[in-house]
Amino acid sequence: MSALRISGLDVTLGGLPVVRGLDLHAEPGEFVSILGPSGSGKSTTFGVLTGDVQPDAGEVSIEGQALNRKASRVAYMPQRDALLPWRTVLGNLTLGLEVRGTKRGPAREKVRPWLGPFGLAGFEDRYPAQLSGGMRQRAALLRTVAQEQPVLLLDEPFGALDALTRSQMQRWLEQMWEQYRWTVLLITHDVREALFLSDRVYVFSPRPARVSAEVKVDFARPRTPDLFGDPQFAALEAKLLDQLLG
Ligand SMILES: Nc1ncnc2c1ncn2[C@@H]1O[C@H](COP(=O)(O)OP(=O)(O)OP(=O)(O)O)[C@@H](O)[C@H]1O
């Protein structure tokens, strides 16, 4: 059974067709990326999955169950880190669980074992402004992971980071994924990031969104930055860029 399946999805916003006939899926423990031009409807598709956007047509299921807009079974990390500046790191980390109805004490106990693996141990009483950009993104990701939902939706998680931090974060996320095998759907504009992290990549057409290409990425794991020098990596990168530029 697929962790996530979208079939024949149509979305119209303000009279504008934003998604038309979209089909995609993610298998349990699979890392899937979506690449697409700006404004093509990627975030709108995530909005449907989180229950924030009402589709006109189509079917969406999580682990075989139809999407329930009131009890979302996806954990979503938005484009901006969206940490609340007035809450401590720990207070931010428990937020996703608290919104889902877990009391603060048990939520803290759930989050604490993850502080080490996410490189946040010792920083739980700081405020977001006291963290580096990479740490803030790790905190936002931990807040998402801690919700223990079947699917993680990551919307451009590293988009605002400088190039060095970004490549450190990509490497870190690949290692974390190796260890925990979350089911991930990642939106990115970065072809190399998609290829480095994913098992499969979807390319979206310009709006209205539909899948214009699907590429399987078979490079062995664990992946290291050496992969960027692999001729097969370069060939796949060129192919995806071609698809994106139409
Ligand atoms: N509430 C709305 N009413 C009308 N149009 C909207 C609304 N929300 C989004 N749109 C339009 O829908 C299209 C898709 O937007 P969306 O944010 O899903 O694209 P995206 O692929 O995530 O873009 P980006 O890569 O720039 O983040 C855009 O053209 C946007 O202007």
Automatic annotation (TrEMBL):
One of its GO terms (molecular function) is ATP binding. InterPro entries: AAA+_ATPase, ABC_transporter-like_ATP-bd, ABC_transporter-like_CS, ABC_transporter_ATP-bind, P-loop_NTPase. The keyword Zinc-finger does not apply. CDD domains: ABC_NrtD_SsuB_transporters (cd03293). Residues 4-231 form the ABC transporter domain. Pfam families: ABC_tran. The keyword Secreted does not apply. Keywords: ATP-binding, Nucleotide-binding, Transport. This is ABC transporter ATP-binding protein.
